[in-house]
Amino acid sequence: MHELPVVIDIVRVIEQEASKRNMKEITQIYLVIGELSSIMDESVQMYFEIIAKNSVCAGAKLVFEHRPAMLKCSVCKKEFSHTRGFNCPACGGDSVLVKGTGREFYIQSFTGQ
User: What is the pTM of this model?
Assistant: First the structure.
């Protein structure tokens, strides 16, 4: 349910930007979602269809790009994606989360006319 306020903000921001650019219709919205953000595509899509219904975003396609959390080995300092596990693939050392990765959620871009 935490996706609802996020989707309201997405539509508000897109409407403001579309107005500045004299755009009447948004056709695609590109969103970036970090794997640790707890944002679910399906929920965003569902709320978007409801919230965008009477806006410039009505009928726009949402395109999701998923970004993995990035880890850094505390031993050899190599960075690698969380999808490979928590131990460093190079040396087997323990890792820590690279600051600012994996929790992101933002509008990357949008298209329309």
Answer: 0.85
Residue extents of the structural domains in the chain? 3-68+99-112
What is the topology classification, in CATH, of domain 3-68+99-112? hypothetical protein PF0899 fold (3.30.2320)
- pLDDT of the chain, 113 residues: tens digit per residue: 689 999 999 999 999 999 999 999 999 999 999 988 999 999 999 999 999 999 999 999 999 999 988 999 999 999 998 776 789 999 999 999 887 788 899 999 999 99
Output the six-digit token pair for 11: 């539509």
Who's near 22: CB < 8 A, 6+ residues apart? none
